Each structure stands twice: as structure tokens, then as C-alpha cells.
Amino acid sequence: MTGSHHTPLPEGFLWGASTSAHQTEGGNTNSDWWPMEQGAAAGVGHIQEVSGDACDSYHRWREDMDLLAGLGFTDYRFSIEWARIEPAPGQFSQAAIAHYRRMVEGAHERGLRPMVTLHHFTSPRWFAERGGWAAAGSGEAFARYVEAAAPVYAEGVDHVCTINEPNMIAIMVPLLDLMLGKTEPGDHAFPTAGLPLPGEEATEALVRAHRLAVEAVKSRAPHVRTGWSVANQVSHALPGGEAAREAYLRPREDVFLEAARGDDWLGVQAYTRTLIGPDGPLPVPDDAELTLKGWEFYPGALGDALRHAAATAPGVPLIVTENGIATADDSRRVAYTAGALQAMAAAMADGADVRGYFHWSALDNYEWGSFAPTFGLIAVDRHTFARTPKPSAAWLGAAGRSRVLPTAAN
Predict the structure, then answer these.
(1) pTM higher than 0.90
(2) Would you give the DSSP letter of residue 192?
(3) Is 165 noted as a catalytic residue in this protein?
(4) pLDDT above 90 for 238
């Protein structure tokens, strides 16, 4: 299957690109990230610049969808912004709900199937100020928002993602506390390689919030297929590192994959791999090609992630909700993505039940602290907001029309 230049996509396979609200909309002033960005000028955390107007997609979403549909994509994953819909506890903006409903309808008008993500890293300021995910009642607060947002997804939406990368949210809790000034730099030990340990309270709260959100969606729209997306670490154990790999992976990934057992689908998000030695995660090898994020260029990560997810949540259909590369060289984007799709096809041939692929990202956007890491299939001028599709966009989008997986050669 991997050697074919003519691998057909299964019937009904989702073929799209992803974005998130905060990273593209601009002006998300009521979110928890906005004040952190303003305070980061003092050098706290990893924020080099503010999101500002981002890609102005709050106003230009029609153009974004026009481009994706014109390129051949059949699906579009985007998120709706909790901070816009519920600017104060229990107070809901009907205008914001209507805005996102127009996006769902606009997708259908252009022949795109919308996948709606309910939470993509950002929360309302009031939610963060009351203690965020670890605070009592966080799951109920999230479910209240999900139920209020039902007019967005109750019709014309087949797939809803409750929470994007909950494992990364749990891992980010100590960093967010630091950036919000709740703790001091010396209060945390951040590793030099690999990811920090997630907070147990936040992990339990996120799993509970997901389940409450699924109940809320199903109560208002029983037909909607619900799931969440997990950031797969693709941990490779070097000789002697097997036990360290298990200890590293379980709290950072596997508990979140296991929480998806029984869901309608599970989102897999993979970009690179993590090497694990006897003492834990290792830095990226000196001779590795690096992306603009400093990650190893490793397209095979996607296949490994799919196999691991399939083994950890057996029987749950998988959707690749994010996969891509931060690079200024679009030819490397094509090479990386071709390798990733080959790896996906091999995993499918081995029995992984993969139902769709969404590339990250549709647009060059705000990558949580900087616009420099360009993941987009479509370039965005920072001053005029003019959109310019890259060659990779036409190459990847063509598969939506042909229903055949692309390779670097075609």
C-alpha cells in the first residue's frame, strides 16, 4: 500500500485542513491567553509576540473557506471560541453563536463538511481567574457552555471535538500559572528534554469535562459523533529505555487515549518523535533536520501514533485531526506530508481504522507565542491579510478531488 502512487481514499474519508479560533481570528480579548500575551513582554514564558489581529479570520472566514474548497478539500476543522460565546459566567452572546452558525452554513454552501472543536487551548478570562480546569465545577462550567453552543452544531455537523489536546492543556497548567503571575519561576522544574508532568487534578478534571461535554452534545444533537484529540508523543525507546518510556508516556498520553474508549472517534495529532533513554527523554539528535519549531523532521511519526492509538483505544475509529510541519521551505512541507501519508496508509493496511486526515494548518497563523513557525498551506500577509496558497496546498487539496492519496512524485 505504501509503495503505490494510486492509493484510493476509503469511501466517506474526511480530507481537510485545521485551524483554531485564537490562532486565526484576532482580537480575542476576553480569552485567558490575551492578558498573558500582553504580560509576556517582560520575558515570562515562551511568548515572543502577541496574537493581535492574527489572520483576521473572524471577518475573513469566507475567503478561507473559498480557498480550501477551491483547492479540493472536502472538510474543514475549526474551533469556536468559548470566551466569545460566554464572556461572563452564565451570560451567552447570541451574536457570537450566530456568527459560528453562519460558519457552519457557509462551509456547507462551499461543499465543505465542518468539524467543530469546542475548546482549542483558550478559555474565558473568568474561567482562568476562578482557577481554570483544576477548580471545583470546571466540568459543569464547560458543559454549560457546550449546551448553550448547541445551535452551532445541532444541524449540519457530523463531528464535534470536545477538547483539543487535553494532555497538552494539563501539561501547560504550571506554565500558565507562571505566566499569570500565580507562581514564581523557581516554583517549577521544567525538563530540558521532553514534556513536563501533567497535573493530576487537571488531568482528572479534563477527562470529566470531556465526558460531561459528550453528554451535553448528545442531549441536544444525538446524531453528532463526538471525540477529542490527543497530542501523540511517538516515544521511541532506545536500548534500555523501555521502562522509562512507559513511565514517561502513561501520564502524558495514554491516560488520555484510554479516556477515549467508548467514544465515537479519537483524534490523533502527530508531528515528530521523542527519543527515550534509560534516564528519560533525550534531546533531538545533533544530525537531525529540524523544523522551525526545533522538532526533528520525522514524517513516520504519524504511522507510529496511529498504531499506538489503535492499540490503546481498541475499536475506536481514528481521525488524524492535525499533522504538519513548520517550515519556510514548501518543498519540505510536501516531502514531509508525503512521508506522513505513506505512514498513515501503512498503518491503515495493518488494520488501523482511520476515517480522515486534517492537515495543520490551513493558514500560517499564531503559534502560541510567535508567528514565525509557519505551518500553513496558505500564506497570510501580516499587514494586508492577503491569502496566498502555497504549492503544497494545491498538491494536497487535489486528493480531495481525485480521492487518491498524493505522493511527493505526483
Answers:
(1) yes
(2) S
(3) yes
(4) yes
